Amino acid sequence: MPLIPEEPQIHESAQGPRATPASGRIAPTPRPVPGPRPAAPPRPGRPGPLRPAPPVQRAPHDVAVAKPGLPGPTAPAVSAPTPATASASATPQVQLIPASAAGALDAAEEAVDLLLDSGRAPGDVLVITTGEQHPWAAHELSFGEDAYWAQHDAGDDVFYADATAVSRAAPRPVVVVAVNGGSAVAVADALPLAHARAGALLIVCGDPQQINSVLGAGV
What we know:
Structural class: alpha/beta
Number of helices: 6
Radius of gyration: 20 Å
Oligomer: single chain
Distance between the termini: 6 Å
Strand order of the largest sheet: 1-5-4-2-3
């Protein structure tokens, strides 16, 4: 199903299935209003103060207990999720950010910045490049693959990987793909794998025609 090119705004829906218009294209979802912006976290290769991950706010659950001989309070009805809802929630949203091969990596970096500013934890994000490696990945691999993948397994920061390593990367809530070159076969192989590893959101930065030709029928 083709994707609509969007402005470089990162958004995630809270829950529920994606609305699909009659044309078969993915409808855009509203952009969330980010909360107070804390100090920016240290990005790989960029010095800066450490920003702790925001705490998860959970609504309190009130449990009503009926006393013997007295009618208990009526609890609100809660409908069980239907199979369709469960299936939709397991499918990540897909967002396309139009960019040239030369500008795809910069677009991906901007997308990551927006994700972190809106409250995403750095360890939630995996960035994949189809062409030239991200400078951070190239630098860390110079110390050996064991040290490089140890940082991946720690899962406490944004991780950058080449398309050839997607099969080894573990799933993360958000996957950002920079289509910054590489052969058509490499891109065609990397995008479905990236989609399979995105738990909530897949962001693809690159040429819309090329990306739609790969993901359009599978999303």
